[in-house]
Design goal:
Elements: E1 6-9, H1 15-35, H2 40-61, E2 64-67, E3 76-83, H3 99-107, H4 114-119, E4 122-129, E5 133-136, H5 151-161, E6 167-174, E7 194-198, E8 209-216, E9 225-232, E10 240-246, E11 252-259, E12 274-280, E13 286-296, E14 315-322, E15 327-333, H6 338-347, E16 353-360, H7 389-396, E17 400-403, H8 419-422, E18 427-430
Helix pairs in contact: 1-2
Length: 433
């Protein structure tokens, strides 16, 4: 069916003439039929037919034309957007193919298909998206390994790329499960018409997945690290779920069963995650990578394991950090004292704390006193110096003894004088100076 936007008259200047002739002919017809001896219905029929004939002739006199606006072939662009995220590998309940396979089949170019028909009138620009938008020549490069589905951001980015250019529309092939829905609050910006082609169907998907993993550790390295694993298992009301933890070498460390509620127990709300916790103590220093895996527990012999929608969300790698160096504490004191002695002795057996000492050593004046030596009424420091360079040197600056330093340059110039030196210590203790 043809659709026309408007009717255009090529000779509008004949409109007054056409109206005048039409009025004159109609008046003459009325006068003539009024004097004729004919039945009334014949008079009305004759006048009506003559009026319609005159109107049609006058309409043709104006040379009317039907106008249909049609884009010039190749003048406009159309963008085809394909979802390349891992979420497309989901298989709907009762389906023998995944959404990714359906998408690949729909985008496979064949002679006489929809892409060839579009190419006759538009310049086709093909894009894929997962974590970001990418240009592609064809869709054979789809591997469905993207770690996100930035549907909102990619559509907005596409509109910005074609700003000021004739973009007729955007075809989006996706299941609609975007991972950046929160950015929708910022708006999409100016966009042409968007035509979504939805892969998959709305149905109950049976799937066990790891939604998130949280790692908590203590300040002290000897304390175990807690790995909190949050799971979801829609469609598995009567099954047991097994969660396993592997070390960086792939060795099984621990395995736990998560019993789902029986039939007479209310199930968790939709989208609510279940939780399992592991405790590990990394042997190696630095960052170690552990693997959390979730699966269906082993069934009794002869009972088949139910098929999941996807296995891509059943494993997750977790980074666990164990400090490489102990906590370093700088202890500054005016003289050796009992506190430092016992504190040092208590911490010698703790590999996580390194106590560095900076002790003032002054044989002549180990401690300032108001009373002087025998025969003196005041401290010798009040008398000042007598010009003896050796004596002046002994009082001009403190004599400091470094204890338990890591190398010969540490604290060589005394107490740290820069922020960089101070940041080398986790704590500083200032005793009686």
């Amino acid at each position: 069916m043809f659709e026309y936007d408007s009717i255009v008259f090529k000779s509008p200047e004949w409109l007054p003439v056409a109206l005048g002739v039409s009025a004159l002919v109609i008046l003459v017809s009325l006068w003539g039929y009024g004097r004729a001896r004919l039945p009334m219905h014949l008079k009305v029929t004759g006048i009506t037919l003559k009026t319609l004939g005159i109107a049609l002739l006058c309409f043709c006199l104006l040379e009317p034309e039907l106008v249909q606006e049609k884009a010039k072939p190749g003048a406009n662009f159309i963008a085809v957007l394909a979802d390349n995220s891992q979420g497309m590998v989901i298989r709907d309940a009762g389906s023998t193919t995944s959404r990714a396979e359906e998408l690949s089949k729909a985008l496979k170019s064949q002679p006489g298909d929809w892409q060839e028909a579009l190419d006759e009138n538009f310049q086709i620009r093909r894009y894929t998206f997962d974590t970001r938008l990418r240009t592609t020549g064809d869709f054979d490069s789809l591997d469905f390994k993207g770690r996100a589905s930035s549907l909102i951001g990619s559509t907005r980015n596409l509109g910005q790329r074609f700003s000021g250019r004739p973009l007729a529309g955007i075809l989006v092939f996706s299941d609609g499960n975007a991972t950046d829905l929160e950015s929708l609050n910022d708006g999409l910006g100016p966009l042409p018409p968007v035509y979504p082609v939805v892969m998959g169907k709305e149905s109950l998907i049976k799937d066990i997945s790891i939604t998130s993993v949280k790692v908590t550790s203590s300040t002290f390295e000897d304390a175990p690290v807690s790995i909190h694993c949050y799971l979801k298992a829609p469609g598995f009301p009567d099954d047991q779920i097994e969660v396993r933890l592997f070390d960086p070498e792939g060795k099984l460390l621990d395995s736990k069963l998560l019993d789902t509620p029986p039939l007479d127990t209310p199930l968790p709300a939709a989208g609510k995650a279940m939780k399992i916790e592991f405790e590990v103590k990394p042997e190696a220093l630095g960052v170690s990578f552990y693997t959390v895996e979730v699966r269906q527990a082993e069934r009794p012999e002869g009972q088949a394991v139910e098929e999941e929608a996807t296995m891509a969300n059943n494993r997750l790698v977790v980074a666990v950090e164990r400090r490489k160096e102990p906590y370093r504490i700088l202890y500054v004191a005016g003289r050796p004292n009992w506190e430092y002695k016992f504190l040092k002795r208590a911490l010698d057996d703790d590999p996580q704390i390194d106590l560095v000492g900076l002790i003032r050593i002054a044989k002549r004046e180990p401690k300032f006193v108001f009373l002087g030596r025998e025969g003196e009424s005041s401290n010798p420091l009040f008398k000042g110096f007598r010009g003896d360079e050796e004596e002046e040197g002994s009082y001009d600056k403190p004599r400091l003894k470094r204890l338990n330093v890591k190398d010969e340059d540490e604290l060589k110039e005394g107490f740290p004088k820069s922020a960089g030196e101070l940041f080398g210590y986790h704590a500083i203790i200032l005793d009686d100076l």
